[in-house]
Amino acid sequence: MRAGKQLMTASIVAVTVTLILSAVPRLEANMLNHRNEVAVFRPEPLSRIENGNLVDVLIGVPLKQPIKKVVWNHAVLSIDLAVGAEDSSAHITSDLLQMLQLAFIQTENVSRLLIRFLEYDSPRTIATTGSSGKLLLAADVRKSDRNLEGYLPFMNPKDMMEKEWRERLRLTYTEAWIERFGLPPQ
Question: Are 91 and 64 within 8 A, CB to CB?
């Protein structure tokens, strides 16, 4: 009788330990899902621009022109892009569309985008911090602009040259643009 009790107790302990050990991996996975981890090697989409992540946000945008200057101030993103001698108007409008989509679709806290495309004579001039290029194109776009967020996902760079979009995006083409690329279509 005594041996039966010991055998029964040992069996109950063995089953209990087995059940507890089988639950440990599920508990550990559950704890990992609820822990607030910082993504170091696992990229997370950045939906808000802040001073601390401005570089991280911009480095993910596949721009053809190098960034010359960026200012983030109270939901206004100002950016200057350097246009080299080999860049075409298609490169510029592509970068403009990329920045519009970043500012008004991919992030939620940009209320205004001020973007300038500046022409530089050489790569050496682009790299020089104090040098300023010739203004080719400027845009002043606001999140509050009519139906902007609805159209941006479906636009292509050629749309930027149409009169309607030039007006809606407040695009300003300078004499330097006209000399280099000609007049935009009327």
Answer: yes
